[in-house]
Amino acid sequence: AIQLTQSPSSLSASVGDRVTITCRASQGISSALAWYQQKPGKAPKLLIYDASSLESGVPSRFSGSGSGTDFTLTISSLQPEDFATYYCQQFNSYPQITFGQGTRLEIK
Amino acid sequence: EVQLVESGGGLVQPGRSLRLSCAASGFTFDDYAMHWVRQAPGKGLEWVSGISWNSGSIGYADSVKGRFTISRDNAKNSLYLQMNSLRAEDTALYYCAKGSMIAVAYFDYWGQGTLVTVSS
Fold it and tell me: SS3 sequence, chain B?
């Protein structure tokens, strides 16, 4: 099964900072990657699909890039509502779908 | 407005069975793949199972293969997960998630989840 490894596992940052989270796949997955945001006690929310396409309604400060095995999620200027846990997810090997272990973004 | 409402969770003993349901509204249910994703307490997300719009394609995580069965009733706009031979490690919040128009395995809407606790 394809494994996804996110780094860092946790991150402290301040409002206004630029933040980058990395997701590495154990084998090539083309661009079949999504990013989700999850706040405590809430369901995940789709942010990015196809590695770099912004889901409708998601602020433009979120962006994604990469293909093959290395992917990044960037938040250009952190807002208070962005402090959450972020997950990458691949489906290149569908019907086997995997998530990364998550990156917790905390307020510094 | 898209709504996904899960039900059927609860406390169950190891080895027993439970059936989860997800009632969908606000979209044309039989146009989309549907999935179950779970999250153990304090842990990350784990995809459990997915089913295509016409039930012609079904997949399971290795951790539940042979024990769980996904199904759907398009006439009732409902998704189900039959869980047999439950184990302590199946304890989790189970989310129902809708496959997106872009790809069957991007999850663009999620329910609030139903909690399954497996314990004696």
Answer: CCEEEEECCEEECCCCCEEEEEEEECCCHHHCCEEEEEECCCCCEEEEEEECCCCCCEEECCCCCCCEEEEEEHHHCEEEEEECCCCHHHCEEEEEEEECCCCCCCEEEECCCEEEEECC
